[in-house]
Amino acid sequence: MAAPLLKSLAESLGSPEPAVRLILSLVIGYPFALVYRWFLFYQPATVLHLFHTLSGLALAVFNFGPQVYHSAVCVLVQFLMLRLMGRTVTTVLSSFVFQMVYLLAGYYYTATEEYDIKWTMPHCVLTLKLIGLSLDYYDGGKEAVSLSQQKSAALTSVPSLLEVFGFSYFYYGFLVGPQFTLQSYKKFLSFILLSFLSFSALPAMRRFALGFLFLVIYAMFSPYFPDSYFLTDEFEAQPFWYRCVFMLLWAKFNLYKYVTCWLIAVRSHFHLRGKHRWDACANMKVWLFETTPRFQGTIDSFNINTNEWAARNVFKRCRFLGNKAMSHILTLLFLTVWHGLHSGYVICFSMEFLIIMVEKQFVALVNDSPTLTKLANSSLYPLLYVVQQFIHWLFMAYSLVPFCLLTYDKWLRVHMSVYFLGHVFFLVAFLSVPYLRKALVPKKERGQAKQD
């Protein structure tokens, strides 16, 4: 009975049925939260783990049917590794290899030329959780002084099977994230994060309303900017400026589907940080995302918890290399592989590295040049801000094209249609920085910057 209704609903909305199931699942999380708050709040931890396991499994079955066994197998194997192999490097390496190979095999056997909502979507979120779990358990055996960002997540004892299942299937983040540690999950159950529980309903509804607003905007405008239009002769026949503007607007509205999911999924009863901030696991900084004119600002505001996971578990653990650029490259390489096997991911994350590197150089140039600093603080700044935003979103869109179109024959055609604008621009920008610095920065400041 439910299947025909869902099919009819999907047809009436003009959306694929898996997408409708996903949105409904995110909304169902709110009744689950109410059940927890009204009936289970003071129950023993065992009852809560069981509730989170069963509710998460129910959502998994609703979306992916019998393919739920993939996640169950990986959670069980992860627990056995922790229990049988102990707090060792072997456990960490075995966990990393098993979980990543399982995920990549899933990508390989289910891959199409489109981005499909299938069991690998929540499984990539789960993969990071389980790899992080092994790292946190390993860190629990280290001296606290040797830990930096990892200290708050370190586990001093091996978790129980039910605790691992509850953590893995917790409806709060099972389908689309965000990432959080087992320690955060345990604090949630022990009410440390819920000291001001009575205040959480209003922030939750505000967050939901904001997510719903982005959903409406996405539903209204995204049909005018379909991915398929990039691959038509009509698009290639348009003027160059039109192709660039279309790509910019396409990227802006396309990202709103991710913003919608993270805003709706993040229920504020798990958000407490400091005094009533309710953002401990927020995955979006919406105001920063909408207003920042810098690429780094967009990265800092988007998919925050995955970025923090990568910083804590990949970037920080590459300190032994003694090279931040190499650590950055290895982190982006891991995220590339974690996203999937398509060439588009490689291009997207390589562009991210190039863009951030060039942006840092230009920011340093502006800070060191009295002329540019004065210009940036002048009355012309509103105009400069508009230009900077246009450049920012144009090249964000250029990088997002391969991420969304996936296969090289598609993204290459789009990049060729705009004459490889992004690669050419940033190559020229990178090569011009030394000459601009020589022309605009006094010799004394250039010498000081070189020493730094």
TrEMBL record:
Membrane-related topology note: Multi-pass membrane protein
Pathway annotation from the record: Lipid metabolism; phospholipid metabolism; Phospholipid metabolism
GO BP, sorted A to Z: lipid modification; phosphatidylcholine biosynthetic process
Molecular function (Gene Ontology), one example: lysophospholipid acyltransferase activity
Keywords for the protein's UniProt record, in alphabetical order: Acyltransferase, Endoplasmic reticulum, Lipid biosynthesis, Lipid metabolism, Membrane, Phospholipid biosynthesis, Phospholipid metabolism, Transferase, Transmembrane, Transmembrane helix
Compartment(s) where it occurs, according to its Swiss-Prot or TrEMBL record: Endoplasmic reticulum membrane
One matching Pfam family: MBOAT
GO cellular component, one term: endoplasmic reticulum membrane
Record EC number: 2.3.1.23, 2.3.1.n6
Keyword Mitochondrion: no
Protein family per UniProt: Belongs to the membrane-bound acyltransferase family.
Gene source species: Takifugu rubripes (Japanese pufferfish)
Protein name: Lysophospholipid acyltransferase 5
InterPro entries on file: LPLAT_7/PORCN-like, MBOAT_fam
Record-annotated membrane-spanning stretches: 20-39, 46-62, 92-110, 153-176, 188-220, 240-265, 329-358, 383-406, 418-436
Main subcellular location: endoplasmic reticulum
Primary enzyme class: transferase
